[in-house]
Amino acid sequence: MLKFVKNYMDSISGIEIYPIISLLIFFGFFVVLFLWVFTAKKEYIESVSNLPLELDNQNQSEL
Description:
Blueprint: H1 2-10, H2 17-39, H3 42-49, H4 51-62
């Protein structure tokens, strides 16, 4: 099966650019995510991290 796929892929011209493009997209996504994490405001991070606890307290008070 792999031999069939490999031979088929070799016959397609210009296919070697797709792995490079996918690697650049993957790397770019994590670079942007890394930059966002280090530039995010601390107040926002704290408020988002407390959301599950606040929602749990609200659900317990409704019971």
